[in-house]
């Protein structure tokens, strides 16, 4: 029988999802725990790779096991022995032709930026000290939509057979600074909504994850994050007047931004390269139309820098 696992993980202590010799991985930790509980070596197949330090507030994997399982009890015991950075939300039987990776129709990522030094956001958001023009960045997002050869955003040396991707949605949003919980994705409310072909500027609906009885309650995994973000939100009302005059000056207005992108597939390092390019556009170093030029004839060296991975989350997968 085939079983589907819904989980989330904090990627800070891992080399990514996929097993790498000598390095801790999410896949390795999950396989070891599952094999221990089932008493037999058990391979776990994930929805796709994530880079070192990248998080997943919504992730799907599958494994095969011959007998019927008490999935609620298995989820409970997995959570008991897995590292604190991995949380299991549900395990359910699925058809034998379900595949965590190849059955996926789209994936959604979010990237988080703040532009004032903030010790309570540094673990999950990138500190970018520049004021960014969101309108310019959203104009650039419109050029990403559709089917393109995205090799200009792919890490050099990657071995994909094709670099063509279909991007369904891409947009930037200014987060609600009055929210005491911040804007980071909650693991108990992260699934993408029913329609994936939505235009730039719209947000995908979210759906509640069903949590099996004894496993993890909604909000438990994100409690610490919400606590520190509550402290941060109290400070966000302070907007000190800082004289402008050089690139080293702090921005006058504190803003927290979220970039959301959904596509049928993603190349290695693709989202981080897109964000780096968008930041250049937001700073006025490039025009929004530069995205078209990159997609038509650009190389990786023509695109922006690869921004840090710690602020990137896989937030949804649709099947």
The number of helical elements comes to 6
* Portion of residues within helices: 10-25%
Unreliable sequence segments: 178-182, 187-252
What is the total tally of β strands? Answer: 12
State the major sheet: 10 strands, mixed
Assign the CATH topology of the largest domain: Alpha-Beta Plaits
Please give the domain count: 2
Given this structure, which CATH class of the largest domain is correct?
A: Alpha Beta
Structural class by SSE content = alpha+beta
Radius of gyration: 20 Å
Element string (H = helix, E = strand): EHEEHEEEHEEEEHEHHE
Q: What is the approximate shape? A: globular
What's the helix and strand layout?
Blueprint: E1 2-9, H1 26-38, E2 45-46, E3 55-64, H2 71-81, E4 86-94, E5 106-114, E6 126-127, H3 134-144, E7 146-149, E8 164-174, E9 191-192, E10 206-207, H4 223-235, E11 256-263, H5 270-282, H6 290-297, E12 312-318
Parallel strand pairs: 3-12, 5-6
Antiparallel strand pairs: 1-3, 1-4, 2-3, 5-11, 5-12, 7-8, 8-11, 9-10
What does this structure look like?
The chain has 319 residues and is of the alpha+beta class. The protein has two domains: 2-94, 2-Layer Sandwich (Alpha-Beta Plaits), CATH 3.30.70; 106-186 and 222-318, Pseudouridine synthase I, catalytic domain, C-terminal subdomain (Alpha-Beta Plaits). The chain contains six helices and twelve strands. Strand 2 (45-46) and strand 3 form a beta hairpin. It is globular. 42% of the residues are buried.
């Amino acid at each position: 029988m085939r079983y589907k696992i819904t989980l989330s993980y904090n990627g800070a202590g891992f080399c990514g999802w996929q097993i790498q010799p000598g390095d801790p991985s999410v896949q390795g930790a999950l396989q070891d725990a599952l094999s221990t509980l089932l008493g037999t070596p058990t391979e776990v197949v994930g929805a796709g790779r994530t880079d070192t330090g990248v998080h997943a507030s919504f992730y799907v994997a599958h494994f095969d096991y011959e007998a019927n399982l008490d999935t609620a009890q298995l989820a409970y015991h997995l959570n008991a022995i897995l590292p604190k950075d991995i949380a299991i939300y549900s395990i359910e039987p699925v058809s034998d032709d379900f595949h965590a990776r190849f059955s996926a129709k789209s994936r959604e990522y979010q990237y988080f930026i703040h532009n004032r030094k903030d010790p309570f956001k540094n673990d999950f958001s990138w500190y970018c000290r520049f004021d960014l023009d969101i309108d310019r960045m959203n104009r650039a997002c419109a050029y990403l939509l559709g089917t393109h050869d995205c090799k200009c955003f792919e890490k050099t040396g990657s071995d994909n057979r094709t670099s063509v991707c279909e991007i369904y949605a891409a947009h930037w949003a200014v987060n609600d600074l009055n929210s005491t919980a911040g804007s980071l994705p909650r693991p108990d409310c992260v699934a993408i909504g029913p329609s994936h072909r939505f235009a730039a500027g719209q947000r995908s609906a979210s759906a509640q994850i069903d949590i099996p009885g004894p496993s993890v309650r909604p909000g438990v995994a994100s409690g610490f994050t919400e606590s520190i973000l509550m402290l941060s939100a109290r400070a966000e009302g302070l907007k000190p007047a800082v004289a402008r005059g050089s690139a080293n000056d702090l921005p006058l207005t504190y803003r927290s931004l979220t970039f959301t992108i959904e596509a049928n597939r993603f190349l290695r390092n693709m989202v981080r390269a897109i964000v780096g390019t968008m930041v250049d556009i937001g700073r006025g170093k490039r025009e929004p139309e530069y995205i078209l030029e990159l997609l038509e004839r650009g190389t990786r060296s023509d695109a922006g820098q690869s921004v840090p991975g710690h602020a990137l989350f896989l937030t949804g997968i649709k099947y």
